[in-house]
Amino acid sequence: MPLRITLGNLLHECAEKFAERQFLVIAETGESLTYNEFEVLTNRITNGLLEQFPEKIKYVNIFLENSSQYLALTYALKKANAIEVSINPAMRGESLARMINQTGSKLLFTSGIQLEALDQIRDSITNIESLIMLDSVDQAQKLFPELQIIFFEDLLSNCQDHIDSLAKDTDIATILFTSGTTGVSKGCLLSHRYAVRTAENLIEPNKITIKDSVYTFYPLSHIGPAYYDILPTIMTGGRVILRQRFSVSNFWLEAKKYGATWFMMLGSVQQLLWAHPSCPEEKDHKVTRCWGTPAPVPKKDFDARFNLHLVPGGGYGSTDAGWVVAPQWDHPGGIVLPHFEVAIHDENDDPLPPNTPGEMVVRPLEPGVMSSGYFGMPERTLKSWRNLWFHTGDIGRMDDEGRFYFMHRISERIRVKGEMVSAYEIEEGVLLHPDVKDCAVIGVAGEMTEEDIKLFVIKKDNAQLTSEDLIMHCKERMARFMVPKHIVFLDEIPRTSTGKPEKGKLATLNF
Q1: Is 17 a member of any domain?
Q2: For the AMP-binding enzyme C-terminal domain, which residue ranges apply (predicted)?
Q3: Fewer C-beta neighbours within 10 Å, C or N terminus of the chain?
């Protein structure tokens, strides 16, 4: 792709080139769109936004489950020079309110599935003036009579013309949230070039061609499906099989039904597939390869059971840093991409020799290929950038030939079912319980290769608080993947000299 191209214009070029090829299939329903049909839907959304909200689309919130409308909306916003603010549909409580409020967006695209979560935080939402509903318009009008409620279909313009984006490719296109290293979730500012460079650098390592069909099931609020799965497919003229959420019982049935040829595995997907009972479809399919985060299932066993090639790791990317290291087809070490410089540093920020583990630090060799910082958090941005390097909070090593190997994290992020979770935000939600005096959260080894959330709690005096009470409290206020799996009641939480929970000591407690 040309270097200086924006996402809306890129889609337009690909839609013209691959017009009648099937582009998108929704796994649950079989709904199907060609490249041209998807482009037309995108253009109708773009023109509708410009006709109805010309002064209100600098930032646009999306709080939706995966759908063809959601995906089209993300590209429509790029054509309208608006900034997409995608929020994980599993978010709940104050974390959700904070994300909705952060940019001051006046528009929120959502659906009936999410109305209960929005109703719970209605007093905390400060800027939204209009809800654009994919469905459940009457219910939304009853719950939010003070807001303008618009049916998505009524937003669509009769004009189907493509609007050529005037943005620069280094302009911000999207804000995606990441837990970062500590504190509340941060909105990462991602440019058009960030997205395009990420996608094009995944095509060759994963051998993606026009003949391929990717099966993707992560929320579109994640960088993975948006830029690792779907955008490389658009650029090569392939096909996207989009699912609302991962289903281990339907995985191989749908992979075979829709002719998937590759997929990405994040989090515990590899282990979940491995642990699921065998079925005939797990060998009888068109999938030739998959790739993702390292997991303990041996490659040779995984390949043999599922009749495919598991790319053996070595890749590295994050929402903050961008897609930095490309995996190799037949080697566990990754190759640093030419747009980045990577080093391994010790705790004093001094470089370490080859094969010595330390913190991975990154800096760009080209504008726009990394996050441009955290929205509204200049101090957090500066904290992440020290001594002219972005500090990833991840431990890795480089071998004598410059190949990178990821090892583990050193930050307070907890990886649960493919989600990066902020311990701070869980603690924040738990402390809202009237019987909780203090708490701390850590990640512990989980059954499915990642981490489980372990919560330590001090009750208020004479409180009759149970683990079941806290789990119910958390389920009402936070995303499912944030709910603690283990709860321990303590008389005192060990703290450092600066008052922070001494999480290293908590990790050594046996309960």
Answers
A1: no
A2: 425-500
A3: C
Closest CA to 331 of 310, 312, 308, 354: 312
End-to-end CA distance of the chain: 55
Q: How far apart are CA 20 and CA 297, in angstroms?
A: 40
Cα–Cα distance for residue pair 274/297, rounded to 1 Å: 8
Mind spelling out the 3-state secondary structure of 107-125? EEEECHHHHHHHHHCHHHC
Residue 351: DSSP 8-state: B
Question: Which range marks the domain in which residue 63 is found?
Answer: 32-192
Give the count of domains, the chain. 3
Alpha-carbon dihedral angle through residues 269, 272, 273, 277, given to the nearest 10 degrees = -170
Q: Are 212 and 121 spatial neighbours (Cβ–Cβ below 8 Å)?
A: no
Mean pLDDT for 94-99 is 92
* pLDDT tens-digit readout, 339-394: 999 999 998 899 999 999 899 999 999 999 999 999 999 988 888 898 999 999 88
Nearest to 362 by CA among 327, 317, 331: 317
Top-ranked range on mean pLDDT: pick from 10-19, 261-270, 473-482, 484-493: 10-19
Q: What is the CA radius of gyration of the chain?
A: 23
Residues 494 and 372 occupy one common structural domain: no
Question: CA-based diameter of the chain, in Å?
Answer: 70
Distances in whole angstroms, Cα of residue 96 to Cα of each of 34, 122, 422, 487, 497: 34, 11, 13, 24, 32
Asked whether residue 395 falls in the same domain as residue 420, the answer is: no
Residue 135, CA distances (Å) to 112, 115, 293 in order: 6, 11, 36
| Alpha-carbon torsion angle 52, 54, 59, 62, nearest 10 | 20
Token couple for 99: 């994300």
The structure tokens listed for 212 are 């391929």
Residue with tokens 């997409």: 84
Q: What span, in angstroms and rounded, lies between the C-alpha atoms of 62 and 89?
A: 9
CATH at residue 429 = 3.30.300.30
Lowest mean pLDDT among 5-19, 179-193, 199-213, 427-441: 179-193
Beta-carbon contacts of 18 under 8 Å, excluding residues fewer than 6 positions away, are 35, 210, 237
Closest listed residue to residue 77, CA positions, set 105, 96, 102, 119: 105
* Average pLDDT over the chain, rounded to an integer: 91
Kindly state whether residue 255 falls inside one of the protein's structural domains: no
Alpha-carbon gap, residue 130 to 155, rounded angstroms: 12
DSSP element (H, E) containing 290:
strand 289-292
